[in-house]
């Protein structure tokens, strides 16, 4: 991956960015387990990466943040899916969002973020539910 947003990152920040590039979207807890670092380190680095616009945060309905790489080339704006049972966030394939993106051209608005989220039940939870 060659995204200019990951240049000049510190070690843990780079590990987070590379992991998000590989896995897609992850919670802070998933990152903490994968990288085997303490909670404070994860949140400090996530905060810094968010401030630099290297990553995006998508919150589920319970306010838990899920993080993904913020790169227009390698990870363009796309919709997300939230499972109503497990509350996990999944990335969906990008769709033609030109109409939505054109809203950012209106001079009376200063749009900084666009979020499209679908809600329902994920495949894993459907399988568990059908076994009951």
Automatic annotation (TrEMBL):
Query: What keywords does the record list, in alphabetical order?
Result: DNA-binding, Iron, Metal-binding, Repressor, Transcription, Transcription regulation, Zinc
The record's listing under InterPro entries reads:
FUR, Fur_C, WH-like_DNA-bd_sf, WH_DNA-bd_sf
Please name the GO terms of the biological process aspect recorded for this protein, alphabetically.
Answer: negative regulation of DNA-templated transcription; regulation of secondary metabolite biosynthetic process
| Domain of life per record | Bacteria
Where does this protein hold Fe cation?
A: 74, 98
> Required cofactors, per record?
Mn(2+); Fe(2+); Zn(2+)
Q: Which residues bind Zn(2+)?
A: 83, 86, 122, 125
Which Gene3D superfamilies does the protein's record reference? 3.30.1490.190, Winged helix-like DNA-binding domain superfamily/Winged helix DNA-binding domain
**What function does the entry list?**
Acts as a global negative controlling element, employing Fe(2+) as a cofactor to bind the operator of the repressed genes.
Q: What is this protein called?
A: Fur family ferric uptake transcriptional regulator
